[in-house]
Amino acid sequence: MTRLIDAYCKALEWLIAAMLAAMVLLVFGNVVLRYVANSGITMSEELSRWLFVWMTFLGAVVALKEHGHLGTDMLVSRLGPLGKRVCLALAQALMLWATWLLFSGSVAQAKINWDVEAPVSGLSVAIFYASGVVFAVSAGVLLLRELWRTLSGQLRDDELVMVQESEDLAQLQARQDDASPSK
């Protein structure tokens, strides 16, 4: 299961990079065309906005898998292993509930907007809302797996706090993980 999730997240990283490249080409090309040829790419702004939303949701899936989201552990870090485990399980259950809300809302919006065409591209607006569905399904699988690991006691004590206190600490931890001999 871990290898499948790793491969999925690696594919998402490549997809995010491709989306970013497409955004850069669309926006830069549009700017150049406006100044040089007094014309532009009509769909540039709309597609760039849609790509940005998709990148954000897909990036959130990767960050969730890597425990890269920022948070505060001021209280939880002072608890014992049982307290940390209870807080983590509660947090994961709340995240699953929020993910369910996002999923049901995104599905509802996609259904409502299935026949609505975007003003410039003419694409179905449901594509825009599908990003929430993809995120919710992916995050739900990851959260259920992590909740199972928490409740079944598979997590070590040092894994019971799954947030990063600051971006600097997150980068330092990522460098240490990359340099560890187990990889």
TrEMBL record:
- The answer to whether keyword Transmembrane applies is yes
Q: Name one Pfam family in it.
A: DctQ
Q: What's a Gene Ontology MF term here?
A: transmembrane transporter activity
Cell compartment(s), UniProt: Cell inner membrane
Which stretches are transmembrane?
A: 12-35, 47-64, 85-103, 123-144
**Keywords assigned by UniProt, alphabetized:** Cell inner membrane, Cell membrane, Membrane, Transmembrane, Transmembrane helix, Transport
Would you say which domain of life the source belongs to? Answer: Bacteria
Q: Which parts of the sequence belong to the Tripartite ATP-independent periplasmic transporters DctQ component domain?
A: 23-151
Biological processes, Gene Ontology terms: C4-dicarboxylate transport
A single Gene Ontology CC annotation of this entry is: plasma membrane
Membrane-topology descriptor: Multi-pass membrane protein
Q: Does the keyword Transmembrane helix apply?
A: yes
Q: Where does the protein principally reside?
A: membrane
Function statement: Part of the tripartite ATP-independent periplasmic (TRAP) transport system.
For this chain, the family text in UniProt reads:
Belongs to the TRAP transporter small permease family.
Q: How does it assemble?
A: The complex comprises the extracytoplasmic solute receptor protein and the two transmembrane proteins.
This protein's name: TRAP transporter small permease protein
